[in-house]
Amino acid sequence: MLMGLLVLLVVSTPRASEAKLKYELRTDLDNDAFTDFTSDENYSWGARISFHFPAPRRFFCLDGDYQTRTGVCVLRRAGGFDFRRLRFVVAIGQMFWTPDEIEFRAIRPQERPWAGLAYIGLGFEYETPTWRLTGELMLGFTGNLSGARYVQVWWHKFVPAPTQPWGWDHQIGEELIVNLRLRYERRFFTEATRLRTRLGTHHWFDASLTARAALGTFWGHVAGGFGFRIGYISHGFSAARVFAEQPADRKHGKRDEGRFLDFFQVYFFARFEAAHVFRDATLQGALFAPNPHTVQMIRWVPHAQIGLKFDLKYVDLHYSAVFVGPEVDTPAKRDDWHLYGQIWVGYQFY
Fold first, then answer.
1. Homologous superfamily in CATH for domain 2-349
2. 205-261, pLDDT tens digit by residue?
3. Which of 27, 35, 29, 28 is nearest to 321 (CA)?
4. Do 180 and 216 meet the contact criterion of CB atoms below 8 Å apart?
5. Who's near 254: CB < 8 A, 6+ residues apart?
6. Each residue of 267-299: pLDDT tens digit?
7. Where are the domains of the chain?
8. Would residue 231 be called left, alpha or beta, if left means φ above 0 and alpha means ψ between -120 and 50 degrees?
9. Taking a C-beta distance cutoff of 8 angstroms, is the pair 180, 4 a contact?
10. What global pTM score does this model have?
């Protein structure tokens, strides 16, 4: 299903003499303590480990018209679609949400419910110099099966924290979740801001438009927005440099891996989005399991993100602050914005 959506959405792809794909292992951490050490509320924790790898070369005929013993390749490069730019993603993750005051054992009707999610993700990334399309199918569990209760209780004892999370008995019900997420991004102004330096060709500014959607039993929303990057920018969207701007080195059969500083970049970025939400299990609860506590949600939710990105050839570092508009439609929370931090660490290899 994901591949069918990918083919339908791709209209054309600029050709390149060389499209480099690299393996990537990435760890993502989200926590409100990354922006305020005294905060422990709303979207309180997120952890994800993902492995990104290129499409199998023989399966996608990337080595020419390779003939398998059982017949021709399954897929061939056709039209403007280039499977050399395709990567697959396998991920595992955990997320949980808590009310403002976690030390209370009783349900607080004005606050958001306790909610936990553990999942595996199967996805793809397709990137060109000017746009990127990503998708992911999520399969997971809510409730006690997510392990959120045990992780937060253990962490608060390990630190140790001044308060303990006593309200997990009231978390949303246990059930299997299935969710599909898609995201499209388009870049502008890269050529107009291009620079030539001793390190190679870079640009100092670009802007982007984004559109994303989620559909499933846990999340349902559509969103759109814009963003910009400013700094010393050497490549496109992903950390793994899918599109190689450096020329290939064919001397003596050596692979062109580029100089260490060919992939250097550092830049500030900002993004702004508005989402229309029609399903949020962290507020509405599980679909088919009993929920001790649910609340009404706000349909239109703004998002903003500012951060700093630093990349070298093999290592990528990302820190950002994320602002989320009011989500809970109760008098106590109707004007309550939430702030949390994101830290990403990626390692790429051939």
1. Outer membrane protein (2.40.128.140)
2. 999 999 999 999 999 999 999 999 999 887 766 544 544 333 333 343 444 455 556
3. 35
4. yes
5. none
6. 999 999 999 999 999 999 999 898 999 999 999
7. 2-349
8. left
9. no
10. 0.82
